[in-house]
Amino acid sequence: MSLGTLVLAVLILSAAAFVAGRRLALARAGGDPRRLHSLPGHYGQNAALLAAVPALALLVLWLAVQPLVVEQRVASLLPATDDATTASLAMAEVRRISVGLDRLAVAEDLSDRDLAALTPEGLAPRLRAVGAAVADVTPETLDAARAHRALQASFGLWMSILVLGASLGGLAAALLRTRPDFRARNVSERFIMWLLIAASLVAVATTVGIVLSLVFETMHFFRLYPAQDFFFSLTWNPQFRGGSDLGIWPLLWGTIYISIIALVVAVPIGLLTAIYLSEYAGPRTRGWAKPAIEILAGIPTIVYGLFALITVGPALRDWFAQPLGLGSSSSSVMTAGLVMGIMLIPFISSLSDDIINAVPQSLRDGSYGLGATQSETVKQVILPAALPGIVGAILLGASRAIGETMIVVLGAGAAAKLSMNPFEAMTTVTVKIVSQLTGDTEFASPETLVAFALGLTLFVITLVLNVLALYIVRKYREQYE
Questions:
Q1: Which of 292, 267, 297, 262 is nearest to 277 (CA)?
Q2: Which residues lie closer than 8 Å to 85 by C-beta, 6 or more apart?
Q3: How far apart are CA 463 and CA 470, in angstroms?
Q4: Which of 87, 94, 340, 382 maximizes the CB count within 10 A of its CB?
């Protein structure tokens, strides 16, 4: 049974459990809902939750553990090695062959006996023909792939049996305790509370997992490459054959430079837009202008990158860079910064608009009562009151700019350098993270692992900006409530 079919079966059982639990509660109350402790729907909800949640939790746990158990058993069939990278590559090849055998069985209508009779000679081209990226097939990897495929099928069968059994068991348990005096509402509410707690813990655990993965791989990188060279070198020149210079400062400078230009563009325009929409625009104008501006937030960043590559870059080169003798390339810091600033306008304007609208009307009325004009009220009352929130919006926009990739790739180029010329091509941390992890590279090399050190550095920078924004908002918010 496929995974989708199994989940659908559990959901159908859960829906059936809801109907059965509700009807059984009414039947045992003699058809009179007043004799029940809870509403009939609460009994059905309790049965549905017991039929679905434990079964789905078992399914998630099984899917997390199964690959580890299968690969541990299959690894014993491969040649022994002390190199973790070599073992990982061999296991990846086994997985590709296993998937290829499944596809080959479907494409050529082969039975399990036919697959067992296959030999390594001439098998690799047949597997590549069905879409399996297999380099070569050896007797050891073929045997391991067959064992992997058999274990996957066996574990999949047991997973279906146990998950459906857990769902039916939960349904039976719910129906057995469905009685008129059963506190179904309390149990259901408590169950939902723990379900929400589990969902929040998943989010927290995901964040912790991301941080730990970055930390561990960064520690591995610093065992291979000196930390002082990474943090204090002014040269970025990765060479996968050795002798690399992996200093972060050229990448960090490009990131900061492009982000500053983006904020110089986005902050004045976004803030002035927010002031106009919240204080000057009428309801009709605001009704169409605000959604029109926020459409910019829905445009994919790759489209912004294409706009930078095709339109903004050549225009800046022809009208400014070449006439001023500052460069001849359409890829530049200014190109990426301008387009990124346009992308950030709806982000800053929307947040600032909400913050300005949150300023109490009594402050405006008091200012007008003292004889202030509308512009004086905006400048001396509203903006000071909304300033903490506006600063928080700007810092959040800055963290958004620091993490941008596609606009920089297409608009600023990939040159890692330290320069003050805004019409030269530069790059950022995020672009180099992508470039170091793509292509045919050795994962255990410093030139690849440096991506995790760059990612951790970027994570710390954006975390500091977000924490600073939240601190400013929370510290000064109470003054105006």
A1: 292
A2: 442, 443, 444
A3: 11
A4: 340
* Mean per-residue pLDDT of the chain: 86
Structure tokens at 274: 């927010």
The 10s digit of each residue's pLDDT in 294-332 is 888 888 989 999 999 999 999 999 998 888 888 888 889
First-to-last C-alpha distance (Å) of the chain: 58
Instruction: Say if residues 413 and 338 touch (Cβ distance below 8 Å).
Output: no
How far is the C-alpha of 323 from the C-alpha of 327, rounded, in Å? 9
| Cα→Cα distances 263→272, 350, 426, 443, Å | 14, 15, 18, 36
Distance CA 73, CA 205 (A): 28
Judge residue 378's burial from the number of C-beta atoms within 10 Å of its C-beta, 0-12 exposed, 13-18 middle, 19 or more buried. buried
For the record, the structure tokens of 474 come out as 């929370």
Q: Which tokens sit at 19?
A: 């109907």
Q: Helices 249-275 and 429-437 sit at what angle, rounded to 10 degrees? A: 130
Q: What is the pLDDT of residue 250?
A: 92
Q: Would the pLDDT of 84 be above 70?
A: no
| The residue type at 419 | S
Tokens of 326: 């500052």
Tell me the C-alpha to C-alpha distance, in Å, between residue 339 and each of 262, 270, 325. Answer: 7, 14, 22
* CB environment 424-439: b (16+ within 10 A), e (fewer): bbbbbbbbbbeebeee
Residues 90 and 81: their CA atoms lie apart, in Å, by: 10
Q: Is 55 exposed, middle or buried (0-12, 13-18, 19+ CB in 10 A)?
A: buried
The C-alpha atoms of residue 407 and residue 302 are separated, in whole angstroms, by 7
CB atoms within 10 A of CB 476: 15
CA distance 136 to 145: 13
Residue pair 108/100 in contact (Cβ under 8 Å)? The answer is no
Q: Which amino acid is at 340?
A: M
Cβ atoms within 10 A of the Cβ of 194, count? 11
**What is the rounded radius of gyration, in angstroms, for the C-alpha atoms of the chain?**
31
Answering whether pTM is above 0.85, one says no
